[in-house]
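Example 3.2
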Amino acid sequence: VATYSRNSDRGAGNQITFMASDGTGANFIAISDGANGSSDRVLINVNGVSQMNTGSVSYTANQLLIRAIGYKVNDGATAVNGGTLATDISVLIPVVNQLTIGYAPYFSTSRVNGTIRKLSYYPRRLSNTELQGLTS
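Structure, written as tokens:
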């Protein structure tokens, strides 16, 4: 679960809120804005193949976003600000060994331009109801 805001659009570079990865762009779980800078989404990649690119929501500068992500094999979901749940039932989960906050370790221009208020980790796949409740 992440609580954050972005000060502005970074243009062509993605703004990474957090990324759990193996230090490469091949295997990761992340919250990122879209390359156009006006939407926010969840990304999961395994061996360079997109497994989940979902939950896209529009945002404005300085808007507070609370996003929860739940994942296990073939069961991914995300919710933002208590809104409709986005799900994916065909998801592999990457092996990761590091967590970076506010940037992608392999790409120097993917830095967040904003504030990350809180990150929480739960060592189990929360239910979809719990994900929505945590973002309300």
